[in-house]
Design a protein that fits this description.
Layout: H1 20-48, H2 53-75, E1 89-91, H3 96-106, H4 108-118, H5 120-127, H6 129-132, H7 138-160, H8 172-191, H9 195-198, H10 200-212, H11 221-225, H12 243-269, H13 277-296, E2 302-304, H14 306-315, H15 320-334, H16 337-344, H17 348-373, H18 378-396, H19 406-412, H20 415-429, H21 448-452
Antiparallel strand pairs: 1-2
Helix pairs in contact: 1-2, 1-3, 1-10, 1-15, 2-13, 2-15, 2-16, 3-4, 4-12, 4-13, 5-12, 5-13, 7-17, 7-18, 7-20, 8-10, 8-17, 10-17, 12-13, 12-14, 12-19, 18-20
Length: about 475
């Protein structure tokens, strides 16, 4: 990193080591900020493809362990893999919609197979950053991020109503419980400061969970049956490979690469620096390598968590050792099955009340990315509108693809693929913009627009 003056509001710089008595609570704060965002994707995917509760518990454990190990690697690199920055890793929301579709079409083994085979995309991105980045300016990445939120909101609503196929779907009890979580989260986020705001979704979920107990909506039997220690089992669900699934996940790796660039930039910007090529390359390599590791150990792709970037900026604690402690805590939690069982026993409406907010804020972060970095002229507005329309077209009316072969139906049935490719191609070929519109070229440091990255006003939505 270049020599620079550290801002006065930075309590601990990247290489500083806070006293252990301070570092542990600060590490726990990182865990609180990202916990729900890390465990919600395996819960939602497992529910979406009909897995049993016991299997859901195992997926939650693996998500915690892999996130912890990936965070430690980012903090303390292994060779070129890792940015040596306070990056907290976790399961990416970006893959959630496509993975549910893949799981329903081919089974969970295809999810892990696609994630494993496509993971080199981020590794290649790390080594060829300057070449590929110009094709994904804020106009393109913003469209994809907006579509991630838009396509996930119906899933959140289904959970809030009690789950697809539930006998009491949309009952007053379900909607009331989800509404409580929603209301508590909004109030904490908008009217409080500090940890109450940062962990507002987490606290809202806890409140809803506690209220659900006397309502008889929590099944404690699975918690009682869960053990106190478990050992990860590689490839527990097998692995299989399907071209359409691999292509879909490969495209999503490109998008999360851009998110990681933004997160790295946001972290070092807090210390009045710009990221070096080594930091960007190491961060992307860690994303790819640890996502491959995740696939082998039954977890979903990992990426940097934007809410923790916001936490670094908010608290002024940029110490990578604090993030490393958060990684150790996540690993410890992952080896305790009762933790996973408690999370898995969460009633659907409780999860839904928080998920609706998370997904809505993902849409908002994409809109913010475009608003801050893209001029709303006729050309760019046309590209944005058409890309969103085409993406939602295949999402809302999948029958339009019914005459295509099954493999192509699965690939083009993703709103993120259709909308993302539409934005990419239109940005290249529509006159008046050109490749790289809305973003300056990569130099030894990144511009302030990149530093804004995908940080979310709610500091809760995930990658």
């Amino acid at each position: 990193m270049s020599e620079t003056t550290i801002p006065e509001d930075i309590e601990y710089d990247i290489e500083d080591r806070p006293p252990l008595g301070e570092a542990i609570p600060l590490g726990l704060q990182h865990v609180f900020a990202m916990f729900l965002g890390n465990v919600a994707p395996p819960l939602i995917v497992a529910g979406g493809i009909g897995m049993a509760t016991g299997e859901t518990t195992f997926l939650v454990q693996m998500a915690l362990i892999v996130a912890g190990i990936a965070t430690i690697v980012q903090v303390s690199p292994i060779g070129p893999v890792g940015a040596r920055l306070p990056i907290v890793m976790g399961t990416s929301f970006a893959f959630l919609g496509p993975m549910i579709g893949i799981g329903n079409s081919f089974g969970i083994s295809a999810i892990f197979g696609a994630a494993l085979v496509a993971s080199p995309v981020e590794m290649i991105a790390g080594f060829s950053l300057q070449r590929f980045r110009k094709y994904f300016p804020p106009l393109v990445t913003g469209v994809v991020v907006m579509l991630i939120g838009l396509t996930l909101i119906p899933t959140g609503v289904d959970y809030a109503a009690g789950g697809v196929g539930a006998a009491d779907y949309a009952s007053f009890a379900n909607l009331g419980l989800a509404g409580l979580v929603f209301l508590v989260t909004i109030l904490l986020n908008q009217f409080f400061e500090g940890i109450w705001r940062i962990a507002s979704v987490f606290i809202g979920i806890v409140v809803g969970y506690i209220v659900a107990i006397p309502m008889g909506m929590v099944d404690f039997s699975t918690i009682a049956q869960a053990g106190w220690f478990t050992v990860p089992i590689p490839l527990k669900y097998g692995i299989s490979f399907h071209p359409s699934a691999i292509g879909t996940i490969a495209f999503m790796y490109v998008i999360t690469s851009m998110e990681t660039i933004g997160d790295i930039s946001g972290i070092v910007a807090a210390t009045n620096r710009t990221p070096t090529r080594e930091q960007l390359r190491g961060g992307l390599l860690a994303d790819g390598v640890m996502s491959a590791f995740a696939a082998i150990f039954n977890a979903m792709p990992n990426t940097s968590f934007s809410q923790n970037v916001g936490l670094v900026n908010f608290t002024g604690v940029a110490s990578r050792y604090v993030a490393g402690i958060a990684g150790v805590i996540l690993v410890i939690l992952g080896f305790i099955p009762k933790i996973g069982a408690i999370v898995s026993a969460m009633p659907d409406p409780v999860l839904g009340g928080g998920a609706v907010i998370l997904f809505a804020m993902i849409f908002g972060s994409g809109f913010k990315l475009i608003k801050q970095n893209v001029e709303f002229n006729h050309r760019n507005n046309t590209i944005l509108s058409i890309a969103i329309a085409l993406g939602l077209m295949v999402q809302m009316r999948p029958d339009i693809l019914q005459n295509l072969p099954a493999t192509w139906q699965n690939f083009f049935g993703s709103a993120l693929i259709v909308g993302g490719f539409a934005a990419l191609l239109l940005n290249i070929f529509v006159p008046g913009g050109g490749v790289g519109t809305g973003r300056t070229e990569l130099s030894d440091g990144l511009d302030e627009e990149t530093a804004s990255g995908l940080d979310m006003d709610f500091d809760q939505a995930s990658d």
